[in-house]
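Lab meeting, item 3. Inverse folding demo.
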């Protein structure tokens, strides 16, 4: 969180160079308003050989915005499952870029390798794909988005930002140091759904070349976002997941992204504190009186199901915290059922329950029986309704999907037996209040953000969406009511005496 805030402050507070104070300044090449040309070439290898001109913009205005649609001829090597590159040059007008000493260029791939998707008819007939379709095939990127910093900004040589330094080329003009235009190909505009498979009979494919001049803040912001996307690939995110993140980053303004980062950081802090306090309190807990076995068991099973569901389609960055949470929940099951392992004999044994724990088990069984009258019919009907999913996936995937859907839909009811036990025992002292507070705040923030996103996307939403967003908070508020009602009388008396003293003073 602090690193993100530091980066954003750097974007907003980049100070220009003041030559009057004796600072070494680097001026922009665009300050002299040279007559420029933008040329886009295609080649098999991103070097200065065998370049084929695709787009030519002469004269080129760095402050303008344009879009060109062209057809690009594909070489035989590209049609044979090969690659093709685009090299963007900004150079002096009327001069070849290879002869211009102050040209800048940027190379980007026009092709990418992915496993081709199968047609719907093949899915319905359950045909086995050919061996070639299981291997990555070259696909065409129909969009090439070019951006360049068009702001005449003077940098301080001693305080040059590291993200700008990577794209900067410095030239000497007499006594003055100048930097050439900062050119960038926007990789965030690329989407997997827009890819076109290249076959051996494809001679030409359309290409849309767009350009936009941006400020220094915008340039640094895009560079930072592209570094984030690169890091996500290194962490194992799939291209489909990265596309969703790209749409969130590109379609949102800077202030909304800052707010999202702050909210995410707050949720991570609350989740970390809840996990820490939960583990600490359960490790010190000696008696399981007042603790619902069914709630702990249900939470453990639901966490394991979610982990198995995410195991097929999520990266390690997301799986790691979920897996740690699942391990803690399984450990709590052994704790609440009084199951202990004898290391010397390598055997498991169950400790006997005392009177208070047996009474808790009776209340827990009674609450679970009442709850089953509602949950079982809903889960069975939901599984029957999702039988259409079985036609496209295996039995294992259908089973996991149905169970996870039930967990997401009715998981909030797992707290109901614990509320029933609190009501019967007229006490909440056996619960860790700080853990529930942290998780309650975290859930409330998530539901408020979901509610806001639904409202912003559709303008309004039905009461069913409101119920699905705030049903967890209903049980949480019931717990807060029990915490207030069943508070120890000594604490109430002490609070009342303290308030009287304050009034007297």
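The presenter then showed the designed sequence:
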């Amino acid at each position: 969180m602090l690193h993100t805030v530091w980066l954003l402050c750097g974007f907003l507070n980049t100070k220009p160079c003041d030559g009057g104070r004796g600072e070494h300044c680097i001026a922009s090449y665009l300050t002299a308003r040279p007559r420029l040309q933008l040329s886009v070439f295609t080649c098999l290898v991103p070097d200065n050989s065998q370049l084929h001109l695709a787009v030519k913009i002469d004269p080129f205005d760095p402050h303008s915005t344009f879009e060109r649609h062209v057809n690009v001829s594909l070489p035989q090597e590209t049609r044979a499952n090969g690659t093709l590159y685009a090299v963007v040059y900004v150079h002096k007008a009327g001069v070849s870029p290879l002869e211009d000493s102050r040209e800048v260029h940027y190379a980007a791939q026009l092709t990418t390798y992915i496993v081709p998707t199968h047609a719907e008819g093949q899915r319905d007939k359950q045909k086995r794909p050919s061996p070639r379709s299981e291997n990555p095939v070259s696909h065409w990127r129909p969009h090439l988005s070019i951006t360049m910093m068009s702001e005449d900004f003077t940098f301080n040589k001693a305080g040059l930002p590291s993200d700008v330094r990577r794209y900067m080329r410095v030239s000497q003009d007499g006594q003055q140091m100048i930097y050439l235009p900062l050119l960038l190909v926007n990789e965030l505009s690329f989407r997997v759904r827009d890819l076109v498979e290249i076959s051996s009979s494809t001679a030409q494919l359309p290409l849309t070349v767009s350009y936009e001049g941006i400020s220094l803040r915008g340039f640094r912001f895009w560079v930072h976002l592209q570094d984030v996307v690169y890091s996500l690939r290194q962490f194992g995110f799939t291209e489909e997941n990265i596309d969703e993140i790209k749409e969130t980053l590109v379609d949102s303004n800077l202030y909304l992204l800052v707010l999202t980062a702050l909210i995410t950081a707050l949720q991570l802090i609350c989740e970390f504190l809840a996990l820490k306090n939960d583990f600490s309190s359960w490790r010190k807990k000696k008696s399981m009186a007042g603790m619902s076995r069914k709630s702990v068991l249900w939470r453990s099973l639901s966490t394991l199901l979610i982990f198995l569901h995410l195991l097929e389609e999520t990266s390690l960055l997301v799986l790691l915290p979920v897996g740690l949470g699942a391990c803690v929940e399984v450990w709590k099951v052994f704790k609440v059922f009084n199951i202990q392992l004898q290391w010397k004999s390598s055997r498991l044994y169950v400790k006997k329950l005392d009177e208070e724990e047996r009474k808790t088990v009776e209340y827990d069984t009674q609450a679970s029986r009442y709850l089953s009258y509602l949950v079982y019919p809903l889960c069975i009907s939901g599984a029957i309704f999702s039988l259409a999913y079985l036609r496209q996936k295996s039995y294992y995937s259908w089973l996991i999907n149905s169970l996870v859907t039930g967990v997401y839909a009715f998981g909030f009811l797992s707290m109901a037996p614990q509320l029933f036990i609190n009501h019967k025992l007229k006490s909440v002292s056996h619960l860790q209040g700080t853990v529930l507070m942290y998780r309650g705040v975290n859930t409330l923030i998530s539901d408020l953000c979901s509610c806001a996103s639904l409202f912003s996307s559709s303008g309004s939403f039905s009461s069913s969406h409101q119920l699905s967003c705030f049903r967890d908070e209903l049980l949480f508020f019931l717990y807060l009511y029990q915490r207030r009602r069943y508070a120890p009388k000594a604490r109430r008396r002490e609070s009342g005496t303290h308030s009287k003293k304050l009034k007297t003073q």
